[in-house]
Design goal:
The protein is mainly alpha-helical and about 900 residues long. It contains 42 helices and eleven strands. The longest helix has about 45 residues.
């Protein structure tokens, strides 16, 4: 039987299996169009499912075995052929399982980048190709959007040479949740703790409008260290109107399907709640809640629709076999009677509520189910039981059993009663006080938000446009006046407002709000809130140029976070910020180690790197003269971002600008300019013309226009950047130094030395204040300032700055740094202008040697300077060749570089005079 015929058989079977037996023949005669063989094959499969004999019994005798054989027989050869095949950077090793859509392979990375094992999912050929490909593409998008440590993340994906999609997923070396619990003899509490990890992951998916739809033991693995991972979101369904609500293929496992799935109704998050109820039932009882007549898919579906689930506390002794019940209970470290007693009541109610036939009667969310399980673990009342005062009192007594037992040994019966009453009264007062506090905090927060909405109401503001900045200012006034007695609410709102100001680029307004938030969080003592407050306030300090203070706060935050899985996401953020400030302070080795650690955590957590981490790390690679490596890293991140994110996401713009910088650092200016312009347009759409994010990219565009020998355009762009940054940040902000330096460099090329010197000197003052005198940035500014001063004839000042730049570049990057040729050439020129040229022209020769070794093609100016030095030392023939060759190259490559042209014309004139003599 080929694949197409099998699909017809299965479709007819699904259509008829729920009908009465006497209708099968008539309905098949109507639908098989005279194909007697097809009719007999479907009848035989229906008969096998119903447990009866049909004539001829072609499929009944071998039912299940033949079913599996039909599905996989044609693919056995294909599986054997695929072993060793390369898919992208991976090599298939061997199959490790079969899913609803196809085979799953263990694979290894084979591109030599690093060692890595992955699970690769391949499509099964018996599926409809168009639908299968659509599902695979949907799975790739879904997985890319799910970023949770309990969800196996997407690593890569593509299409095989014969057009079949594949996905590379995180390989989880573990066993399913049930077997893990049995193997380790986990008690009920330990099993529930594991199950709550599953709930946490499913809730994460639901928050992103993703329903799993096929939760079952084989899709939940536990590794050797006890970490839970959810697999196979490939048949998940986005709960969104843009996706069709029905599918031509029913994709679920009957034993774990919800009634509405069996009925073919629209899928919601309630199906996952139901499946979690089934998993919890099996995890705690070792049984299934339904008892179908036989073990066929159709029988399970009928049971789900028609049978009431057995109460869990009854299920553990349901089969009547004392030995089986004892063995099952022993696996949970209990006796059968004790297990039944533990399940009776609350756990019964929780599981049965999750397994209600009607979705509306189940838990409203996975969080609600988890909340009831946590309540049981803490001996608090559960929502699934609406008990009266007796139930509440019983829960209270169990929750405080130790305290009450101690009291019983110390006082008489009357005192016990009195003590219990006092405890209850105290509990009531505490709960009352907590409730009043929470109510007051909620009311205050509501008043705060209402006040903000009132400001935006046109009836109150008489139609005036209200800016975001005005709303935030009003919020600050309300916090100051209305939330003085609610420190938690005050801190939360201060943090939110401070971050909003940061998002608008209003750093001066953000800093005091985040400082107050940190003070309140230190007083409160809650660790996670304190770490977040340290992180936010440090960001404000960093924006103000106070990098060492930010670094100290990040180190404090890191010390508060144990290096465990639960803290991985926050640790990655803290390490990223430490790396960034260490880079700003020119501590490149330590910075790189922390960047790589943060990137590793991000890849492990989310299956990809965060764009901003990539951008900053690649900046470090570029500054340490590894632009080509940075380009590869950025292109990979950009490709993934374009696949995962909306087309206008700011992260795409930032990665485009980063790639442009990588290309610019390699001298590929023509390729870099359009990337900058595309990034700039995206940022203007999202942030507006004057936002700091837009200005960062505009500054980059100015530098590439300069490098591409378009100085007038560069001057226009960079002048605008400087003006807008002065307007928004003030004259003393560190972020003004970069565009000032870039503007001065272009002015130098145009021979505007006085304007350039003034801008360089202002940039140098800012750099000395914020970065120090020996920082890499200080070297860059000193290089430019020395060049401008040389153009003005201020030789002593020029020499001092040029030597400072050379010393810094050698210390940071070594004696072959690609930043060295610039100041070395100007130092050689300076010596010639003093009529004291180096006898061997060592500085100029060293500059040319570095340019040649690094593959830099911009040798024209260097040849001119070396020629001028040789001319000054009496080596006229060599000088003539170099000066004329350099002049020709300069005319071709940088016709608008008036500074270089001026130097060339000076040396040409001296050469002419020398030759006339």
């Amino acid at each position: 039987m080929d694949a197409e015929r099998w699909k017809r058989v299965r479709a007819l079977f699904d259509r008829l299996v729920e009908l009465p037996r006497e209708q099968w023949q008539r309905r098949l005669a109507d639908t098989c169009a005279g194909d007697a063989a097809l009719e007999q094959e479907v009848l035989a499969l229906l008969a096998a499912d119903a447990g009866i004999r049909a004539e001829p019994p072609r499929l009944a005798a071998e039912g299940i075995a033949l079913l599996a054989d039909l599905v996989w027989r044609d693919e056995a050869a294909e599986l054997e052929r695929l072993a060793g095949t390369r898919l992208g950077p991976f090599r298939l090793l061997h199959p490790i399982g079969h899913g609803g859509m196809g085979a799953v392979w263990l694979a290894e990375r084979a591109d030599g980048e690093f060692a890595q094992k992955v699970a690769i999912k391949l499509i099964r050929s018996v599926w409809d190709e168009a639908e299968a490909e659509a599902r695979f593409r949907a799975e790739r998008q879904i997985l890319a959007g799910l970023q949770h440590p309990r969800i196996a993340h997407l690593i890569d994906g593509g299409v095989t040479p014969d057009g079949k999609p594949w996905l590379a997923l995180e390989y989880v070396d573990g066993i399913d949740l049930g077997r893990y619990s049995e193997r380790h003899r986990l008690d009920l509490k330990q099993r529930l703790q594991l199950f709550l990890s599953v709930c946490e992951a499913v809730a994460h998916a639901h928050a992103r409008l993703v329903v799993h739809r096929d939760l079952k033991p084989s899709n939940i693995l536990v590794s050797g260290d006890g970490s839970v991972k959810l697999l196979d979101f490939g048949i998940a369904k986005l709960v969104d109107a843009q996706f069709p609500q029905a599918s031509t293929t029913r994709v679920f496992t009957p034993e774990y399907a919800a009634p509405e799935q069996v009925r073919g109704e629209p899928v919601t998050t309630a199906v996952d709640v139901y499946a979690l109820g089934l998993l919890l039932y099996e995890l705690l009882t070792g049984r299934h809640p339904y008892r179908p007549e036989n073990a066929t898919p159709a029988a399970y579906e009928r049971a789900v629709l028609e049978q009431a689930p057995t109460r869990p506390s009854h299920a553990v002794t349901r089969d009547g076999a004392e030995g089986a019940a004892a063995a099952l209970s022993a696996q949970r470290r209990l006796t059968p009677q004790r297990l039944k007693r533990e399940l009776r009541g609350d756990l019964d109610a929780i599981m049965l509520k999750a397994l209600r036939k009607e979705p509306a009667q189940r838990y409203g969310s996975v969080q609600d189910l988890a909340a009831d399980l946590r309540a049981w673990l803490q001996h608090r009342p559960v929502a699934a039981r609406r008990g009266g005062w007796r139930y509440g009192a019983a829960r209270f007594l169990r929750r405080h059993a130790l305290a009450i037992a101690a009291a019983a040994t110390a006082v008489c019966g009357l005192a016990i009663g009195l003590g219990l009453a006092l405890w209850q009264a105290h509990e009531a007062r505490v709960q009352r006080d907590v409730a009043r506090y929470e109510m007051r905090k909620s009311e205050q927060t509501l008043r705060f938000l209402t006040g903000l909405f009132d400001l935006a109401d046109p009836h109150r503001n008489l139609g005036a446009n209200v800016t975001a900045r005005e709303l935030l200012a009003q919020g600050k006034r309300q916090i100051d006046t209305e939330l003085k007695d609610a420190p938690d609410a005050r801190a939360a709102l201060l943090g939110a407002l401070g971050n909003a100001y940061l998002g608008l680029g209003l750093f001066d307004e953000a800093e005091p709000l985040l400082a107050e938030n940190l003070r309140l969080r230190r007083a409160g003592g809650e660790r996670d809130a304190l770490v977040r407050a340290l992180f936010d306030y440090g960001r404000a300090l960093a924006e103000a140029g106070r990098m060492r203070e930010d670094l100290a706060l990040m180190r404090e935050a890191a010390a508060l976070l144990p290096d465990v899985a639960a803290n991985a996401a926050l640790l990655a953020e803290v390490e990223y910020r430490q790396a960034t400030q260490l880079y700003n302070l020119s501590e490149h080795a330590e910075s790189e180690a922390l960047y790589r650690r943060a990137l590793s955590r991000e890849r492990s957590l989310y299956g990809h790197y965060k764009p901003q981490t990539v951008i900053n790390f690649v900046t470090l690679l570029r500054v340490t003269e590894r632009a080509r490596e940075g380009e590869r890293f950025t292109r990979a991140a950009l490709a993934l971002a374009r696949e995962r994110l909306p087309a206008n996401d700011p992260a795409i713009a930032s990665l485009l600008a980063s790639l442009a910088q990588d290309l610019q650092a390699q001298g590929r200016h023509a390729e870099a300019e359009p990337l900058y312009r595309e990034a700039l347009e995206l940022k203007r759409q999202v942030f507006g013309e004057e936002h700091q994010q837009t200005l960062v990219t505009l500054n980059g565009l100015g530098t590439v226009l300069d490098a591409a020998d378009k100085p007038e355009q560069a001057i226009e762009v960079l002048t605008r950047v400087v003006a807008l940054r002065r307007k928004q940040l003030g004259d003393g902000h560190k972020d003004i130094a970069s565009p000032l330096n870039n503007l001065a460099r272009v002015e130098t090329k145009l021979g505007r030395y006085r304007e350039a010197r003034a801008h360089y000197q202002e940039a140098q003052r800012l750099v000395f204040r914020h970065y120090g005198r020996e920082d890499m940035v200080a070297g860059i500014v000193a290089d430019g300032l020395g060049r401008a001063q040389l153009g003005l004839g201020e030789l002593e000042k020029a020499e001092s700055d040029l030597r400072r730049a050379i010393a810094i570049f050698e210390r940071v990057h070594g004696v072959e740094s690609t930043r060295l040729p610039g100041p070395l050439l100007e130092l050689a020129r300076l010596q010639v202008e003093r009529n004291r040229p180096e006898p061997d022209c060592a500085s100029a020769r060293r500059a040319i040697a570095i340019l040649r070794k690094k593959g830099d093609g911009q040798h024209a100016y260097a040849e001119i300077v070396l020629g001028g030095c040789l001319l000054a030392t009496g080596q006229g023939l060599q000088a003539a060749r170099l000066i004329r060759s350099g002049d020709a190259g300069l005319r071709h490559s940088e016709p608008n570089n008036l500074h270089a042209r001026s130097v060339a014309e000076t040396y040409l004139a001296r050469l002419t005079a020398h030759e006339r003599r």
